[in-house]
Records
---
Amino acid sequence: MKVKEIAELLNATVFTTNCYNDEHEIKYAFSGDLMSDALMVLRNAPSEFFFNGVLITGNVTIQSVRTAEILDFPLIIMTRDKIPTSQVISQAEKSNIMLLGTRNVMFSVSGKLYQNNVLGYTDIVES
Amino acid sequence: MSPKLKKDFVISRRDFQNAGYVSSTIKKELMKRNIDSRIVRRAIIACFEAEINVVIHSYGGMCRYQLDDEKLIMTFADYGPGIEDISMAKQKGYSTASKDAIEHGFGAGMGLHNIEEAADILEIQSSPNGTMLQITILLRMK
């Protein structure tokens, strides 16, 4: 899915207006609030998982941006109408990471993307 | 041959706003050197977890990284209170973190375990005065 298709599907707000490549293709996703979990589970994932991946989280702190930066995710979807601070948005733009916000809860975001053929880590390592 | 590098950073206690700066800086340096991206990711995951540990658990500390063509050595040294039981702390789920650490997505007791899994060599020394953690990553070019 292209980022613009995801934004439309989730009726999302674009927080990083200075950094928004709506044509970027997203094929993979990881959902979670625990950043250590993302770091541990994904440490051996292929690079494509990150370059064409999204981090779905309810964590709107700067650490979700740092985690995306460390793992090379170009996109974060922040769930449940949470709004990041201007400092978080500015750090995301500096790190070239797109931030989208949606009213959908994490379960619904994950389900809607999965229905559109966006895969999780275990879908690619176990297939 | 790339030049050898050595650099020090100060890491402040409970400074969640800047936590990750050291990891981000080291990552940029590794990416300049044409190192296999999986090794870069493993190195920076270990670095980020160690940096977060200093922010969450210590009274403040520093990181020194040394880089040459064969290896990256990251040394994290902090002031107290130290790790009471290192083998317990390496177990998944064992945590002594505060509520604010958890709000930032850490403190679930996976940090030291993650570092051990990501590092090629890990040395830990700890006392009530502080902790020294040395992470070695063996490098391979693309």
---
Amino acid sequence: MALYATYRDVGSVTVVDMGGKITLGDGSALLRKTVRALLEDDRTHIIINLADVDYIDSSGIGELVHAFTSVHNRNGELKLLHLTKKVRDLLQITKLYTVFDVYTDEASAVSSFR
Amino acid sequence: MAQENKHLEVVLDTQVESVNLAEEMCLRVAEAAGFDEEVCYRIGMSVREGVINAFHYGNQERPDKKIHLAMDITDQKLVIHVMDEGKGFKLKDVPDPLAEENILSTSGRGIFLMRAFMDEFSVVPGRTGGAEIIMSKWLPGSANAPTNGQSATDQHESPRKDT
């Protein structure tokens, strides 16, 4: 699957739809660039929709953590939506599954923001 | 009848593209060796992480240095070697990414993933002076293969000799 990241507004929440591989190089760079652009635009309620992300490596995991802490440092929240099995398994064995707020449906994810 | 041992060795440039190339080569070898899709994914991910380690930490992303990748298939297991031209490292010096103080670290999970996904894992001094990661997976149906389909948890470590 081709790498992409687009975003859309759902009320006061920004949903980033990502697809492809979040790995060392282009995938990690795209995630970083996208989140940075959102923060520069003062968007701090962010959901990353990973439904079409079929592969992630340690670099991608690190980039997700970087995004999470960058948003929190701006007093915002970053949540994850629609993890594929491979991504969920990786977050579980690295004990990050409980660090991230993870949702399986978009409406619940959007309404979870305070 | 015992299977004939096979050996494949390549020298890769220190560049991001080598990570994907190494993973793709090892995936083909793993598929040909009879591993199922899930185990191939684990082997591919481990090779990816090993080469990322060599690229970033070992060779410091210096293009004048090389990454040496070798694969051996014996009648029992697939053995993968990833060697860099850096200064080497000791496994005991690698921080635990699951420790509370490291859980939000943006790096340092590669070694952990290789240990989790492969049956055997060690780091030894390489002939280039850098680190050599050696990791293996028991072939399906081999005498030592896990019967539950999961990776073994035992890890064998050969510490680097002090120089």
